[in-house]
Amino acid sequence: MSLSRRVFLQNAAATSIAFAGLTSCARASQSGGMQGYFNQVEGYGALQSDPNRLFDLPPGFAYEVISTVGDEMDDGLITPGDLDGMAAFPREDGRITLVRNHELKSHEVEKSAFGPNMERIDRINRDRIFDWTADGKPHLGGTTHLIVNPQTLQVEQSYMSLAGTLNNCAGGPTPWGSWVTCEETEDNAGPTALVEHGYCFEVPASATGLIVPQPIKAMGRFRHEAIAVDPASGAVYQTEDRRELCLFYRYLPDAPGELIRGGRLQALVVKGQPGVDLTNWTTSNMSQGDWVEVEWVDLDNVEAPDADLADRGHAAGAARFTRGEGLWWGNGECYFTCTDGGPERIGQVWRYVPSRFEGQPGEADEPGRLQLFVESQNDEVMEYCDNLCVAPWGDVIVVEDGPRDQYIRGVTPAGEVYTIGRNADADENGDTREICGPCFSPDGSTLFFSVQNRPGRTFAVRGPWANRSA
């Protein structure tokens, strides 16, 4: 099933020809006032209602809930709440390591790994907690590890791997086997923190317990969302979840693969259009499918004590985006979302293809390129796109965090959207919680993702994934 991107594109083209002259769109309405979905291209079939009312999937697909917030972990702590970004890593023993973020603030003690009264805090080494509040309470964000048996999908071990950080939203895997987790905040030291927050931290997939937390300050201090690493150049791309004005960043490490040793932080500039507004809220400066060439501007004072890194970068010519969220490396390119981009303010997906000389001499003569890959005009096609990943067969898998129903969407290489699943766990008001952390197992057979809360669950889904490329 691990088809190459070239084979997938050939199959996609053949499918387009086969359906020429026919309607390729399918609409499915939901009863009971639920939001329907609209497929621009054939996916896996209509969603089937889950009798357990947790998650709706197409025929032939099934899920397992492998972890739930509140479960006791093997280190004696409690699985913390507000699940978010996640990645899967292979182990030498054939198991899978899942590394998950927890987007927690210091006051959310009811979701804490240490218990609502901090009764489990002494089960760990306090020196491994990154920060505390002024009144002596630990910050509650961080990461957890799950060791999963790929045959049974049983979690054989679970434990906290990073503690004391704040609002860990997304992040991204590295080619050398670690997870970079991102703090989505710009909190300064003061009544609620002893040190500044808003940094990235690297967590080895091989960690067997709490690591010594080290903020990677050269990657910048801002409302981090996600990262993706180009394995060819070592460049690290970063998104920023800042409303109305955010940038798309590039970090060029002094020593590729050793992020903590420092490097150069830059922001994307559209060539010939300094400061261009790509939110498309009032004026469309790019249409879906358009490509532009880019440059990169160096940023200084990247620890930004005044929380003004995006403002200074934009003044220096960087392109303006809005609410940058998920980011993932694909086959020689990366994709990222802007949750409220576009004229309807319901989401954009962007594609960046680096230069052959990314970050090196010669880049100016053969620059990287940026494409507006998807811009949703209809909330039944895609609404408030958030985390994403790239599937083994080349499609982009996007999850939602919007005011209506939350879906998992697939996007073909041609930018056409289809629906894979729906969060069916609504509260008494009909509201559902965001889907987050999509990632595939190393062999491509299993899609992992989480529903952030109520109470928060991590799912594993198996099914006929190869049918999308048949």
Question: How would you characterize this protein structure?
Answer:
This protein is mainly beta. Helices cover 4% and strands 35% of the residues. The longest helix is centred in the N-terminal third of the chain and has 14 residues. It has a single domain, classed as Methylamine Dehydrogenase, Chain H, CATH 2.130.10. It contains two helices and 27 strands. The strands form six sheets. Strands 12-13-14-15-16-20-19-18-17 form a nine-stranded antiparallel sheet, with no helix packed on it. It has a five-stranded antiparallel sheet with strand order 3-24-23-22-21, with no helix packed on it.
Summary keywords:
single chain, 470 residues, mainly beta, 2 helices
Strand content: 25-35%
Order of helices and strands: HEEEEEEEEEEEEEEEEHEEEEEEEEEEE
User: Count of helices?
Assistant: 2
Oligomer: single chain
CATH topology: Methylamine Dehydrogenase, Chain H
Q: How many domains in all?
A: 1
Task: Name the CATH architecture.
Answer: 7 Propeller
- Rg from C-alpha positions? 21 Å
Low-pLDDT segments? 1-24
User: In order across it, which strands form the biggest sheet?
Assistant: 12-13-14-15-16-20-19-18-17
* CATH domain class name: Mainly Beta
The helix content, as a percent range, equals: under 10%
Gross morphology: globular
Largest sheet: 9 strands, antiparallel
C-alpha end-to-end distance: 9 Å
Structural class: mainly beta
Mean pLDDT level: 92
Number of strands: 27
Please provide a brief summary of the model:
It is built from two helices and 27 strands. With 470 residues, the protein is mainly β. The strands form six sheets. The chain has a nine-stranded antiparallel β-sheet, with no helix packed on it.
